[in-house]
Write a structure and sequence with these properties.
This protein has about 180 residues and is an alpha+beta fold. Helix content is about 40%, strand content about 15%. The protein is built from eight helices and five strands, in the order ββααααββααβαα. The strands form two sheets. Strands 3-4-5 form a three-stranded antiparallel β-sheet. A two-stranded antiparallel sheet has the order 1-2. The longest helix is centred in the first third of the chain and has 13 residues.
């Protein structure tokens, strides 16, 4: 992460911006992948990307010096590259392991309806619903070592999954929507 210190009206404000995909969270990636590019020039798009990655209001970006802004442009060049990662069997969040549900031929009605609803809500644009989809695809294991049975309450995990790094889960989507069953 690169630290940005911006002086606004005599007060230093600190922001961080990722230097690589490994530092980008699911929530940020979802916003990046859904960035409305229509009618925006390259400079406007770059300002939007910096805003998303740094959680800095665009108005504050307009207050930066050109030199400071150009330094950030260099930092975010990684966003022009493909997200790399590997398919993991599980991710760990706050000491709890969440495993990938891989038996897609055995989906419950609740899972089918939830997935279908999310796909419809996203109008086929899955980055809109990445963290919600993770609520369905990633599960804890019970005491017998089996994945917990899907419940609608799992959707409450969305905020938690938004904080995962995109490289830890990007391949979950490639696995699920690629139709792999290994």
């Amino acid at each position: 992460m690169v630290k940005i210190i911006l002086n606004v009206d005599g007060e230093d404000r600190e922001f961080n911006i990722p230097e690589e995909w490994e530092e980008v969270k699911v929530g940020q990636a979802s916003k990046l992948f859904n960035l409305d590019r229509e009618g925006k020039n390259q400079l406007e798009l770059t300002i939007s990307v910096v805003s998303i990655l740094s959680d800095m209001d665009e108005e504050l970006i307009y207050m930066m010096s050109q030199e400071q802004f150009m330094e950030l442009v260099e930092v975010i060049k990684f966003t022009n590259e493909e997200v790399k990662g590997e398919l993991k069997d599980f991710v760990t969040i706050d000491g709890d392991d969440y495993y990938l549900k891989k038996d897609f031929e055995k989906l419950t009605m609740g899972e089918i309806i939830s997935i279908d609803t999310l796909i419809n809500q996203s109008n086929g644009n899955l980055p809109n619903v990445m963290s919600k989809m993770l609520c369905i695809l990633l599960r804890k294991k019970n005491t017998e070592g089996e994945l917990e049975t899907f419940r609608n309450s799992f959707m409450d995990r969305e905020a938690m999954f938004n904080e995962l790094y995109i490289t830890d889960v990007n391949d979950v989507f490639l696995f699920f929507f690629g139709g792999n069953d290994s």
